[in-house]
């Protein structure tokens, strides 16, 4: 694993260039994200010094020992922890509701629009992927429908603890959560009323809670998520990007290792990890190829802006070489004739005929030695006098009869740049013809 710090561009430029090229060449990319990609939107992450776990620990110092305790499934066994959980969820809904998707979320959508994104797997519950335009709902009949899989649920819905009926997380439910109480499930109440009418024994009424997955709790759509991940692995991904997660949760660690193993089977397959904190080298050293240590949004900006990441696959505009007129020296080098000159010295080489010009223009790439080769273009165009270091061979790529009549015996040619290369540094005067 090669790790670079984004704050030091001079040292990280090579690695950033490599990751840029990987993003440009990849055709089937899988992205796994964590809370770090939403920090710029105002939502704290979980495990950093100023993250959610530390905030909860300081807010409820007497009620919980760790911030993680408020996200464990066992909290419902304690009335105090349950009340704190609902109160926090009501306040957290305000934070999520005000958040806007970040540069990284927009980057994910761009990958999807270009057909490079197989799927995004996110641990976040803020629904910013959906806000950016990625579909998060499940369609069992269509494995390609879901573009972003919410591994830990979302704050968009509330779910009953008994019948598992889902409802929109409305302001009505939010207000009840803020008061530390759980609203009763409407579906369970209706079923209870019907049972009373028909004379059946009543059943317990469930309560609503945010539709998120807690620690030590199974995802209600776990089987379908497993089918999607197995399907994506069979699609032979050639790039895995992991962003904004510390890779501490066992489930996400298993998913990353499975995806990375498949990616490395590709000849160009690589794994890129972007996060503020480096991963454990002993566990991830042979799995992650490149680690960009720093802010996720800053890394995306560097890859796309400063290094001009070509995600759009737009070829650079073609710039036509300007037409230039090459001045010609006389064999003795005594006279230089400009394009505007109308008089030519008697020492000027004789004008090429149209037949000679056409023949020279059709010659393939070759090297001509003006001192030794008897059949060279130099022999045809140069006067039979003593040779000097400043002797030139004039070659015209194409010349119509009308152009020839306008030349007025001036030995100049019109060519495009880089079509003729002349090397007069040695005595042999090598000429390279590029057609």
UniProtKB/TrEMBL annotation:
PROSITE patterns: SIRTUIN. One of its GO terms (molecular function) is NAD+ binding. Residues 339-392 are annotated as: Disordered. Residues 366-376 have a biased composition (Low complexity). Zn(2+) binds at residues 160, 163, 185, 188. It comes from the Eukaryota. One of its GO terms (cellular component) is nucleus. Residues 6-310 form the Deacetylase sirtuin-type domain. Belongs to the sirtuin family. Class I subfamily. PANTHER family: NAD-DEPENDENT HISTONE DEACETYLASE HST3, NAD-DEPENDENT PROTEIN DEACYLASE SIRTUIN-5, MITOCHONDRIAL-RELATED. This is DHS-like NAD/FAD-binding domain-containing protein.
């Amino acid at each position: 694993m090669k790790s670079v710090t984004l704050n030091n561009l001079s040292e990280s430029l090579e690695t950033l260039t490599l990751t840029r090229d990987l993003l440009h060449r990849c055709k089937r990319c899988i992205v796994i994200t964590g809370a770090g990609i939403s920090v710029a939107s105002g939502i704290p992450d979980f495990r950093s010094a100023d993250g959610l776990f530390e905030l909860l620990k300081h807010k409820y110092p007497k009620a919980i020992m760790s911030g993680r305790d408020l996200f464990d499934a066992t909290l419902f066994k304690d009335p105090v922890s349950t009340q704190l959980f609902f109160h926090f969820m009501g306040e957290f809904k305000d934070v999520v509701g005000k958040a806007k998707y970040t540069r990284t979320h927009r980057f994910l959508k761009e990958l999807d629009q270009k057909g490079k994104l197989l799927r995004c797997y996110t641990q976040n519950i803020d629904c910013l992927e959906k806000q950016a335009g990625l579909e998060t709902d499940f369609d069992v009949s269509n494995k390609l429908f879901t573009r972003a899989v919410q591994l830990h649920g979302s704050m968009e819905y509330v779910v009953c603890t008994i019948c598992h009926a889902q409802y929109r997380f409305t302001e009505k439910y939010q207000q009840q959560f803020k008061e530390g109480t759980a609203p009763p499930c409407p579906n369970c109440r209706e079923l209870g009323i019907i049972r009373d009418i028909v004379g059946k024994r009543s059943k317990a009424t469930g309560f609503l809670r945010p539709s998120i997955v807690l620690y030590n709790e199974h995802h209600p759509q776990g089987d379908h998520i497993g089918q999607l991940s197995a399907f994506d692995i069979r699609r032979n991904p050639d790039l895995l990007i992991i962003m904004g997660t510390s890779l501490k949760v066992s489930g996400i660690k298993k998913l990353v290792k499975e995806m990375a193993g498949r990616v490395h089977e590709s000849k160009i397959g690589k794994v890129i990890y972007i996060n503020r904190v480096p991963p454990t080298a002993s566990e991830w050293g042979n799995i992650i190829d490149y680690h960009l240590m720093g802010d996720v949004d800053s890394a995306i900006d560097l890859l796309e802006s400063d290094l001009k990441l070509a995600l759009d696959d737009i070829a650079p505009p073609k710039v036509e070489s300007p037409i230039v007129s090459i001045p010609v020296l006389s064999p003795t080098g005594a006279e230089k004739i400009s394009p505007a000159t109308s008089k030519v010295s008697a020492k000027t080489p004789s004008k090429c005929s149209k037949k000679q010009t056409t023949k020279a223009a059709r010659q393939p790439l070759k090297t001509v030695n003006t001192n030794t080769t008897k059949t060279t273009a130099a022999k045809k165009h140069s006067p039979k006098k003593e040779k000097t270091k400043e002797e030139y061979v004039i070659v015209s790529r194409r010349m119509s009869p009308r152009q020839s009549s306008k030349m007025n015996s001036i030995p100049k040619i019109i060519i495009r740049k880089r079509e003729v290369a002349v090397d007069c540094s040695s005595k042999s005067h090598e000429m390279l013809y590029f057609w």
